[in-house]
Each structure stands twice: as C-alpha cells, then as structure tokens.
Amino acid sequence: MNSTARQTLPDIDSGLQLTAPPVPGQEDLLSPEALRFLAELHRRFEPLRQQRLAARRERQARFDAGELPDFRTDTRAIREGDWRVADLPAALLDRRVEITGPVEPKMVINALNSGANCYMADFEDSTAPTWLNLLTGQRALRKAVAGSLDWMAPDGSKHYVLNADGLAVLMVRPRGWHLDEKHVLVDGERLSGSLFDLGLFAFHNATSLAARDLGPYFYLPKLQCMEEAALWDEVLAFIEVRLGLPIGQMKTTVLIETLPAVFEMDEILHALRGRIAGLNCGRWDYVFSYLKTFRRHRDRVLPERGQVTMTQPFLKAYSELLIRTCHRRGAHAMGGMAAQIPISGDADANERALERVRADKLREVTAGHDGTWVAHPALIPLAKDIFDAHMPGPNQRDVLREDAVADRAALIRPSVGTITRAGFDGNVEVCVRYLAAWLDGQGCVPIHWLMEDAATAEICRAQLWQWMHYSDDGREPLHLDDGTPVDFSLFDRALLSLPSKLADRMRLPGGARINDAIALLDRLTHADELAEFLTEAAYELLP
Predict the structure, then answer these.
(1) What does the pLDDT look like over 88-100, one tens digit per residue?
(2) H/E run at residue 320
(3) What angle do CA 297, 530, 184 make, to 5 degrees?
(4) DSSP readout, 444-501?
(5) Is the peptide bond before 216 cis (omega within 30 degrees of 0)?
(6) Is the pLDDT score of 343 beyond 50?
C-alpha cells in the first residue's frame, strides 16, 4: 500500500496506523476502543508469535537436512498421562455435519440457514484477505450474531434473510499464525492476521454469544506444535479477562493439518484442555504439509493429487490416530472436507461424484469420526443421512480405536502412485485459475466441479515445485506414466499453453488476473526454495 494512504491515529494510539483507504462502515467496526484493543493484543503477543515462527523455520531446516518428524521425548508424560479435556458445551455436542465457506454476506446467510449443525465462517483458506473482504466479513458476522443480517441480489431478484430458528452454530476460523495483516501497523509492525480476525470478532460479539451460551467458538488453523497451541490459550484467556468473560468461555477446535502436529495431538489437546472441543482432519492442508516437510526427501515424493486419497496408508493412519487420541481425552474427532459440488447438466457424472462423497463419509463415520465437513449445502442431506444411520447418538466419543497405530513409520509412509499428463496439467491449471481468482478477491473457486481453496491450490503448487526440483542433484528426473520426463520443459510448455486453453478466461473468476497468476506460479516454481505459503507471496499483490 502506498504510504500516502496511511492514516496515523494519534487521538487513538500514536503507534497505530491504517494503510488502506476507508471502506463504508469501517468506523463502526474499527472504533477507537476496538483499535486500542487490537494494538494491545499486538504489543503483548507479537514477540511470542515471532518466536514460534522462528522455531518453525528452524524445525524445517532440520527436516531439509534429513531429520524425520517423530513423537517428542520431553512430552512423554503428557501422552501417557490420564487426563481429559473440559466438558463440552451443549451447542457443540452434536457436530455431525459442518459446512465451511467464506465470510461474504450471502454465504453467511445460506450457511447458517443450510441445515448443517455448524458453520465455520472462514477468514483463512477460502477468503482472499483484501481490506474490503475482511471488513465486509466482520460486519456480516456481527449482524448475523445480532440476527439482523440480510442481503439483496444486485439485480433485486432475491432477498436473503436469516431463518427465525434452526440456524447452524457459528464457528470462526481466523488466519494462521504465519499471516500478517498489512493494513494495520502497530509501532511500525504489521498486526498478526490471526489477532486481527479473532480479536475483532471477539471484541464485537463475544459478550453477546456468551450470554446465549454459544461461545464464541473458533477453529484454529495451521498449528505445528503444543507451544503454538499454548500461545493461543494465552491469547484467548487474555481476551476473556479483558472482555469480562469466564476463563474457558471461548471454545476451540484445532485443525490437524500439518505433519509436525500429528505427532503432538495429545500435547495440543493438553495445552488447550480447558477450552478445546476437538481436533479436525484438515486433510488437504495436511497433504500440503507432508509435501512441504519432505520437500528435500526424494524417497517421499507423492503421486499426483487425485491419487492421494484418505485410503493412502499415511492418511489412514493419521485419521485413525486422531480418533483414538481425541476420544481418549473426551474431545471430538472431526472428519475432513468433501470438496465436490453438484454437476449440472450431467446426471451420470453428478451421481458418480455423489457416490465418492458417500463412500468418503461412510469411511469417516465407521472409522469413528464424530462429524464431517462439506463445501456445498447440497451435500448436507447426504452426509447427514450417512451419519444418522451409523451414529444414532450425538457423537461417538465412546469409540476408542485402540487398534489405531501410533507409529512414526505409518504416519510418514511413502505413497505408491503415478503422475499422468492430465494430473500434471491439472495442477498447473488449478494453480493458475485459483491464483487469478484470489488476486481478484475470491478465495473459494469452483473448478471442474470441485470447490478449490488455498489448501488445494497449495498441494498443486508444492507438487509442481517438488517434481521440478526432484532432479536438482543431477539424477534422473521423475517421469509421467507415458515416459515423458517431468522437468521444467514440461512445466513451461504447460504454462505457455494455458492461456489458449482458457480462451474464454474473461468469463472465469479472476479472468483479468490470469497473466499475473501465470507469472507468479512461474516465479514460485522456478525458485530454488519452496515458498512456505502461496498466500504469503500473493498477499503482497492484493490491494
């Protein structure tokens, strides 16, 4: 943002600056009291956040040097101890179907009205964090909590309102610890995106939700270790004291979506034991984390994305160990996302897609999961029917899964599979189309009847980088299943041919940013080091 757009706010806090032009309604959300609250969070917790991010970088450097993830020896007593998390609130006892999506007003209304048990309003992987999107989302959630949210279609054809009753329980996912909020500076430093999203929502809504025994409830993303969970616990306790709420009023669910975190699930539950409701199999980010953790390990290169399903041994072990760990401690073990969306105009293809969803949800409920995620309201009845048939109670925390293997070798086992030309080209296309839409302000994009978000784009992007750099040491490159070498020539040809394949790109989400997306993917894939997160690089290109 151009420095001329910076607004110093000496009457509120001499160290506080906003670096974006105001948007309508900003003054109500970013009141002097709210801004001082955010500045207070930054000054108290930013040094600790930076310590945790530095620890991540140091750990990854050890993985790059050949170290393998493992269970910690210094926390053995926690894993072997006899303890349980705090009792769950009534609103979170039955979570059999949760819907997730971005925080734009129409989506918020449709999700809360959808018939799902819970709605995870997502400021992270499915929201492009433009200043307008963030404040529009915060305003929409504030009105939803108050029961006053409505939305009119631009052409006036339809008016969306909240149902009078039967709304899904609201849960909010802030951005992860690694992401900044560049539009708010405190003492010259960017505010944490996590603290901005969660802090601003809590400031405006926590008291109202607590009065109705509805939380507030949060999903916490991208954690890698118990210390990061402990930092969240400290943040939430501070907010509770600051807002006059009982300690433990705010409840959390943690997404186990990084490979290091699967080795610290007991420890993460323990760090948040007074407020945690469960763990979630964030499968797509977990696959991305596997790729990133083992980016320098030639023996653990994954096959194309479509072959990396939950039946792969390392993913099956992860899911079953999460169930065992959660149920032993009295927490929910939530299943993963069904990314399919209805296929219009092709009944046979639509039925095949739905059958894959049925099989996935049946696998989850029979394995012992207490609930699952869907990306589209049309999948809610399907998922609910399967869970109703196999889980008659509100949850199945009594399923202890003592047979689950808590074994490092199982959790990091290499996968068997291939790379097809369609799979390779599909990775390139998904990356470019998603990035273009994200740069245009859309964080959740339907591509080939799948709802793609940052997590699925990250898999495609990380695979391309790893496949390209597989032969950096001069050894034979990977090959497609037809024998074609997987090298930069193949990647460059796929990238160059994409614009002609997307000849109607101006009608696609983000069509005007296709060339920007191609340039960014080209730069990231050719770089000597795998960028930690696609969204960090792309964020600097957002207004």
Answers:
(1) 999 999 999 999 9
(2) helix 313-329
(3) 140
(4) -EEETTEEE-HHHHHHHHHHHHHHHHTTTTSSPPPB-TTS-B-SHHHHHHHHHHHHHH
(5) yes
(6) yes
SS3 labels along 287-313:
HHHHHHHCCCCHHHCCCCHHHCCCCCH
DSSP state of 340: B
> Rounded to the nearest 5 degrees, what angle is found at the Cα of 355, between the Cα atoms of 352 and 359?
145
Which DSSP symbol is given to 67?
-
What's the rounded Cα separation, in Å, for the pair 217 and 170?
Answer: 7
- Angle, CA 299 vertex, CA 297 and CA 305 arms, to 5°: 90
Q: pLDDT digit string (tens) for 465-522?
A: 999 998 666 778 899 999 999 999 999 999 999 888 876 655 677 888 999 999 999 9
Q: What CA–CA distance (Å, rounded) separates 23 from 308?
A: 42
Give how far the C-alpha of residue 122 lies from the chain's centroid of Cα atoms, to the nearest Å.
Answer: 8
**Active-site residue identified among 440, 453, 461, 513:** 453
| 3-class secondary structure, 144 | helix
Distance, CA of 361 to CA of 355 (rounded, Å): 10
Return d(Cα 198, Cα 173) in angstroms, integer.
Answer: 8
| Total Cβ atoms within 10 A of residue 58 | 9
Residues 6+ apart with CB under 8 A from 317: 404, 405, 407, 410, 411, 413
Catalytic residue among 49, 142, 173, 329: 173
Cα distance from N-terminal residue to C-terminal residue, the chain: 7
Contact between residue 464 and residue 428 where contact means Cβ atoms under 8 Å apart: yes
How far apart are alpha carbons 471 and 466 in whole angstroms?
9
Catalytic, 283? Answer no
pLDDT tens-digit profile of 406-465?
Answer: 799 999 999 999 999 999 999 999 999 999 999 999 998 988 888 899 999 999 999 999
| CA atoms of 263 and 18, how far apart (whole Å) | 40
- Whole-model pTM? 0.96
Q: Is 453 a catalytic residue?
A: yes
- What pLDDT is recorded for position 448? 84
How far, in whole angstroms, is CA 513 from its chain's centroid?
23
DSSP per-residue codes, 389-415: HH--SS--TT---TTS---HHHHTPPP
Nearest to 114 by CA among 446, 388, 374: 374
The answer to whether the CB of 279 falls within 8 A of the CB of 253 is yes
Residue 140 CB partners (closer than 8 Å, separation 6+): 103, 104, 105, 108, 149
Instruction: Name the phi and psi angles at 476, rounded to 5.
Output: -60, 135
218 phi, psi to nearest 5 deg: -135, 150
Q: Which residues pair with 446 in a beta bridge?
A: 451
Q: Which residues contact 20 (CB under 8 A, 6 or more apart)?
A: 1, 5, 131, 183, 543
Identify whether the C-beta of residue 37 lies closer than 8 Å to the C-beta of residue 199.
yes
